[in-house]
């Protein structure tokens, strides 16, 4: 009998089947609505990832508010997924909902700046640091544009990324290490370009592998998260970020820090909290309270280099920007999120709640003697069904236990707790209550009790 995370595969399969049946039986309206309406969509869902949750069919959301979602069948669920960080500050935070209502009658998209845009620029500098900003609509786009700029000013082709990373659907980052060599990831739909011409992979927490990748002199930028949050949760080893900064500078590569997830760390993100000094800073998802918005900023020296490049660039398309980006609704939401939602008080609440959750999960794991561990980055908590700490993407990939994780996720949802799909991530918003956190800990304990 195969063992997964300290459990027998057969036991996991039995548990999964029972939980999937219970989920389906409790959702006749959702099932009927999907049967009637899902045919209009490619893959039966409006965005294909929505098929990838572990449930037998997707949950149809009737309403989301604060840290709660209600489904079409009337189940009120504690939401710890929070749109996988898009709603990290809760669903429809009151200041954001007010700002949307106020802007609704004053124009939605104009291709022109406004006084509110200027105020957003001032607040971005105040919260994240004195950079020169651009507004995009998704963090994927922000990373793409940041990479273009890095390649433009360095005249080099490659991005250095870490094995197991995720930075959005940026083609160039979709590489991995195999036996020490950079190769394109399997599974990419319609990929026709040779990604190894534009990217090189290194191992997180391994400065020697970074130095080796930089030695060829063809790397425009290192693109990294401060913590690897997209393959389990891998914390940086002491000195790793200082070493990265130093290597980037010595080899003439820019350092792009992608804080799309680590914005959970505190006001200003991980970089501000931990004193990192990127050349380019990227964040998105919740930065405008859930209104599709991303921001990227460059330091003053990088801005000067870009100005010199731009002045000598031939006329023509830049390859950067999208029509609906930097629109008035984004700015209305950015301003109130930066000033009224991303407050030190809210982060303190989130931090305290996440610490309570991490402690509760750790205790539940110890109670059954599972060889698992828990990692927390500010408001972001993850349990990993393998011993820790993990050092890099290779270890994180080995630690992943998809069948077991899906079983736990399904079991938690049946007990009223939604956590992020694809990995075991839970977020604490300012709206999340201690009672919700304790219910999650109890449900997790109950699921583990049945599994072990
Ligand atoms: N960067 C990181 C670190 C991410 O985790 C993600 C998405 N999970 C992105 C960028 C892309 O964000 P989006 O899907 O909103 O473009």
From TrEMBL:
<comment type="similarity">
    <text>Belongs to the class-III pyridoxal-phosphate-dependent aminotransferase family.</text>
</comment>
<keyword id="KW-0032">Aminotransferase</keyword>
<dbReference type="Pfam" id="PF00202">
    <property type="entry name" value="Aminotran_3"/>
</dbReference>
<dbReference type="GO" id="GO:0030170">
    <property type="term" value="F:pyridoxal phosphate binding"/>
</dbReference>
<dbReference type="InterPro" id="IPR015422">
    <property type="entry name" value="PyrdxlP-dep_Trfase_small"/>
</dbReference>
<keyword id="KW-0663">Pyridoxal phosphate</keyword>
<dbReference type="InterPro" id="IPR015421">
    <property type="entry name" value="PyrdxlP-dep_Trfase_major"/>
</dbReference>
<keyword id="KW-0808">Transferase</keyword>
<protein>
    <submittedName>
        <fullName>Aminotransferase class III-fold pyridoxal phosphate-dependent enzyme</fullName>
    </submittedName>
</protein>
<dbReference type="GO" id="GO:0008483">
    <property type="term" value="F:transaminase activity"/>
</dbReference>
<dbReference type="InterPro" id="IPR015424">
    <property type="entry name" value="PyrdxlP-dep_Trfase"/>
</dbReference>
<dbReference type="InterPro" id="IPR005814">
    <property type="entry name" value="Aminotrans_3"/>
</dbReference>
């Amino acid at each position: 009998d195969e063992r997964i995370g300290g459990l027998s595969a057969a036991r996991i399969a039995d548990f999964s089947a029972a939980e999937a049946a219970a989920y389906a039986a409790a959702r006749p309206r959702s099932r009927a609505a999907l049967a009637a309406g899902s045919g209009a969509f490619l893959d039966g869902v409006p965005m294909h990832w929505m098929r990838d949750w572990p449930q037998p069919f997707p949950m149809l959301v009737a309403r989301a508010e604060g840290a709660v979602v209600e489904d079409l069948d009337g189940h009120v669920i504690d939401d710890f997924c929070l749109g996988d960080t898009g709603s990290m500050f809760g669903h429809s935070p009151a200041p954001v909902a007010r700002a949307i209502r106020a802007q609704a009658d004053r124009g939605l998209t104009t291709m022109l700046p406004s006084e509110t845009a200027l105020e957003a620029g001032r607040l971005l500098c105040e919260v994240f640091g004195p950079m020169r900003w651009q507004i995009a609509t998704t963090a994927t786009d922000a990373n793409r544009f940041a990479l273009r700029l890095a390649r433009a000013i360095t005249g080099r082709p490659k991005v250095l990324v870490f094995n197991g990373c995720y930075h959005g659907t940026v083609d160039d980052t979709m590489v991995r290490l195999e036996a020490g060599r950079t190769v394109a990831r399997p599974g990419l739909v319609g990929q026709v370009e040779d990604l190894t011409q534009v990217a090189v992979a290194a191992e997180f927490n391994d400065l020697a592998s970074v130095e080796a990748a930089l030695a060829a002199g063809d790397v425009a930028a290192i693109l990294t998260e401060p913590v690897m949050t997209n393959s389990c949760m891998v914390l940086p080893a002491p000195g790793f970020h200082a070493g990265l900064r130093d290597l980037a500078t010595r080899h003439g590569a820019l350092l792009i820090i992608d804080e799309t997830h680590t914005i959970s760390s505190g006001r200003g993100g991980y970089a501000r909290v931990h004193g990192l000094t990127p050349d380019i800073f990227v964040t998105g998802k919740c930065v405008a309270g859930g209104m599709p918005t991303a921001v990227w900023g460059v330091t003053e020296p990088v801005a000067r280099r870009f100005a010199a490049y731009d002045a000598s660039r031939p006329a023509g398309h830049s390859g950067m920007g999208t029509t609906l980006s930097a629109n008035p609704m984004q700015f209305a939401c950015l301003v109130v999120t930066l000033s009224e939602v991303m407050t030190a008080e809210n982060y303190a609440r989130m931090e305290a709640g996440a610490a309570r959750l991490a402690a509760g999960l750790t205790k539940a794991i110890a109670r059954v003697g599972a060889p698992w561990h828990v990692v927390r980055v500010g408001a972001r908590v993850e349990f990993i069904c393998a011993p820790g700490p993990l050092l890099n993407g290779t270890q994180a990939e080995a630690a992943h236990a998809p069948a077991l994780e899906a079983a736990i996720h399904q079991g938690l949802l049946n007990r009223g707790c939604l956590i992020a799909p694809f990995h075991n991530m839970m977020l604490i918003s300012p709206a999340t209550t201690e009672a919700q956190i304790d219910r999650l800990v109890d449900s997790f304990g109950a699921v583990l009790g049945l599994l072990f």
